Amino acid sequence: MDISKDEILNNARKWLGDSFDDETRVEVQSLIDSNPEELKERFYKDLEFGTGGMRGIMGVGTNRINKYTLGKNTQGLCNYLKKSYPDSVLKVAIAYDCRHNSDTLAKVVADVFAANSIEVFLFSELRPTPELSFAVKYLGCQCGIVLTASHNPPEYNGYKVYWTDGGQIVPPQDGDIIDEINSIDFADINFNSNKSLIKLINKDVDEAFIDASLENGSFNAKGKDQFKIVFTSLHGTSITIVPEVLRRAGFNVHIVEEQAIPDGDFPTVVSPNPEEPEALTLALKKADEINADMVIGTDPDCDRLGVAVRDLNGKMILLNGNQTMIMMTKFLLDQWKKENKIKGNEFIASTIVSTPMMDALGKAYGVECKVGLTGFKWIAKMIKDYPELSFIGGGEESFGFMVGDFVRDKDAVTATLLACEIAAEAKASNSSFYKDLLQSYVDHGFYKEKLISLTKKGISGAEEIKKMMIDLRENPVKVIDGSPVVLIEDYNSSTARNMITGAKETISIPKSNVLIYYTADGTKIAARPSGTEPKIKFYFSVKGRLNAVEDFETTQKEFDNKIDRIIKELNFN
């Protein structure tokens, strides 16, 4: 990124003014005097909203999470709220997770809202992100904020904005809010709180949320008393809600006590990310010790879940997000079909980088499958944009799922309950979660996915990611593993190009920096820079037939080999 030393220095010197506290000014001066590289990293840009809001490393600077960057965002949001609802009593709900400074930053945000005469409902202690989404609607708020950095490393924190429907903000609204933020200066932030406008919330909202989770995620499964669950919160917020929801639903829950205490250092894991098998090491060990049927771990803000079940040989394996999404969606479709609720105006939802098997499921049940960009804000937008349609459920490959529309974001509380219901019912019927998954491959086609995520930190990393995307666009691959590329979708230019005929079509989904290749044999490869982390992600999907459950291991090996050949051929590293 081209920014001069003088521009960086000018950005930093603004933080030596009277609008900033003594501690901040001292640290900035020290960076100016003795650490030019760190100064550059902290002031070469402003943090931006990505797919999950604003997320970054904590510390002093415009490219960091701190009371001033969050204060400026909140002041801009206050101004936008007043313009959007000029005749309303304005209310916001605020939640925060287990991360360092989440509680103090949440109070800073609450103070700015209250200083601007906006009523604040602030959770008294850490709570799951999906409960914040629920609270926005439940309390009749125009807006909601959650302080979280999801599964990022301990030095990160973040800020997500929700609107009246409980969903995250989407274009063009997010752009209008950013314009409002950019129109003000740090000196415009009003930190002089009206404490009388801040109300602490806890048990009443908890009980309402628990009741709603039980109503949407419980299906009176058989065999709950014979079904053992090992659950880990990975030092996060889910410990406040999930065990209680499972117990009230009638399940036998064994908690990984070493990871039950919220801790922003996440001391027992390399990363608090349920996508990573390492994060569930303690839970898997406990499962084998007590012969548990299922392991579930949630990320720090409890919007994503990792599920491990026993395979055909009785070994615990971690399923990927596509697999759990398929099982949850199929189960919900089966329930709706059983209750004669499928009338032709229902839909399920997924994302452009998730498994194409979601569309196959929708067709099999006569239900539309809507596909949007990565991030549950787009699924929430679908629900809002199509009020005449009933939303059944939906998810994305990155271990998120949403059951019904009472929460308008991925929800590991209700999804955890649903996963347990599915597995308990399967076991009581002399099957298993895993066997039923394989049978769904037999019935609807076998789709095998793999994700490669490359971390590229700092300014040089951002440039490297940018170059990779340019190369894929300007020098498109023509053949992949012997199969010709037949279609390339470029969501940045909103064009889908038929590589055989040269014909182009316009993509109606909003613009995003995503590129997808499709081959004649059904292979799908997507490239997408992360909106919240210094990463570029490559999503691989291959498909074929699985003739019988007994053929799974052989067929899976063939598919794994195919994906490995593709990765080697494309040389993504």
Architecture blueprint of SSEs:
Elements (H helix, E strand, L loop, with lengths): L4 H9 L8 H13 L1 H8 L5 E2 L2 E5 L9 H18 L6 E6 L5 H14 L3 E5 L5 H10 L4 E5 L8 E8 L9 H10 L15 E4 L1 H15 L10 E5 L9 H7 L3 E4 L25 H10 L3 E5 L6 E6 L5 E3 L2 H18 L7 E6 L5 H9 L2 E5 L3 H10 L4 E7 L3 E4 L8 H17 L4 H12 L1 E10 L2 H17 L4 E2 L2 E8 L4 E4 L5 E3 L8 E5 L4 E6 L5 E10 L7 H19 L3
Helix pairs in contact: 4-5, 4-7, 6-8, 8-14, 11-12, 11-14, 11-15
CATH superfamily of the largest domain: Alpha-D-Glucose-1,6-Bisphosphate, subunit A, domain 3
Number of helices: 17
Mean pLDDT: 95
Instruction: Find the structural class using helix and strand composition.
Output: alpha/beta
For this structure, the CATH topology of the largest domain is Alpha-D-Glucose-1,6-Bisphosphate, Chain A, domain 3
- Count of discrete structural domains: 3
Principal-axis shape equals globular
How would you sum up this structure, described in words?
There is one protein chain. The chain has 573 residues and is of the alpha/beta class. It has 3 domains: 45-201, Alpha-D-Glucose-1,6-Bisphosphate, subunit A, domain 3 (Alpha-D-Glucose-1,6-Bisphosphate, Chain A, domain 3, 3-Layer(aba) Sandwich), CATH 3.40.120.10; 208-444, Alpha-D-Glucose-1,6-Bisphosphate, subunit A, domain 3 (Alpha-D-Glucose-1,6-Bisphosphate, Chain A, domain 3, 3-Layer(aba) Sandwich); 446-570, TATA-Binding Protein (2-Layer Sandwich), CATH 3.30.310. The protein is 38% helix and 22% strand. Strands 17, 18, 19, 20, 21, 22, 23 and 24 form an 8-stranded antiparallel sheet that branches. Helix 6 packs across helix 8 and helix 11 runs parallel beside helix 12 (357-365). The longest helix has 19 residues, at 552-570. The protein is globular. The two termini are 22 Å apart. The mean pLDDT is 95.
